[in-house]
């Protein structure tokens, strides 16, 4: 085995907590869990860009060299954060249907990213799969266990839903951040003032989507944008039906409609 393969294997063992345990001597005061938790605190306080081996070592009261005995590099630390910072997947009861279950699975990940926006800056697409991320995948597979799909198809569906998570979370994070920055500027408060201390009404009014309404009502004209105004004029908003899916966005519902249609077409094809 080459040195590169050996190093890669060691990183995977650390990610999975499978490195050999010391059988003699005192228990080490510093470990991977403490390092990753400290990196998370740094990211919560100052963003992911502030995370470095030196800064995390300072947070823990150790020298950077002490960290390198447990983590091979900053890249590896980001891998560990991508897996270990992620909370455990939600417990979804067995009697919940596959559609509602997958919606809950998606929403839990969106909520997680909105709570800690820097998570989206982690190398999620290129990090090796760790035990916690695999648990999320396992829950998704359980929710689809009764669907007439093979493993590869289920994996592709979960991949598409994961992309939906990234898109939904990014839009919500960016709109909330933009609204908060606007409210802070207009109120003349410190730029670091937490969102929780800002006026909720002002935050709602500062939402960029409110600007879109202003554009349509005051700035744009039907002559310049005839199809937008024609669609808006024919629109009659209705209250959503009081069903189990009413609380979820149309995007995820459209995606699951497609999955349901695909499964039904396959069933009909096998019955012919």
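Sequence proposed for the structure above (272 residues):
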């Amino acid at each position: 085995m080459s040195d590169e393969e050996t190093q890669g294997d060691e990183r995977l063992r650390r990610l999975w907590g499978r490195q050999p345990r010391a059988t003699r001597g005192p228990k080490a005061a510093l470990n991977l869990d403490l390092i990753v938790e400290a990196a998370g605190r740094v990211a919560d306080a100052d963003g992911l860009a502030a995370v470095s081996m030196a800064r995390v070592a300072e947070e823990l009261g150790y020298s950077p060299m002490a960290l390198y005995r447990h983590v091979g590099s900053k890249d590896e630390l980001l891998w560990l954060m991508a897996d270990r910072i992620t909370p455990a997947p939600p417990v979804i009861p067995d009697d919940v249907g596959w559609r509602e279950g997958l919606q809950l699975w998606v929403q839990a990940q969106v909520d997680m990213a909105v709570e800690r926006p820097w998570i989206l800056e982690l190398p999620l697409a290129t990090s090796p799969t760790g035990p916690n991320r695999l648990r999320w995948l396992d829950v998704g597979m359980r929710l689809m266990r009764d669907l007439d799909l093979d493993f590869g198809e289920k994996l592709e569906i979960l991949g598409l839903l994961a992309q939906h998570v990234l898109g939904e979370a990014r839009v919500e994070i960016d709109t909330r951040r933009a609204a908060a920055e606007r409210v802070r500027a207009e109120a003349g408060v410190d730029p670091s003032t937490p969102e929780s201390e800002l006026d909720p009404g002002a935050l709602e009014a500062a939402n960029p989507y409110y600007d879109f309404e202003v554009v349509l009502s005051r700035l744009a004209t039907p002559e310049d944008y005839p199809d937008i105004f024609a669609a808006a004029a024919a629109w009659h908003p209705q209250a959503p039906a009081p069903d189990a899916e009413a609380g979820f966005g149309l995007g995820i519902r459209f995606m699951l409609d497609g999955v349901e249609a695909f499964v039904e077409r396959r069933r009909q094809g096998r019955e012919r």
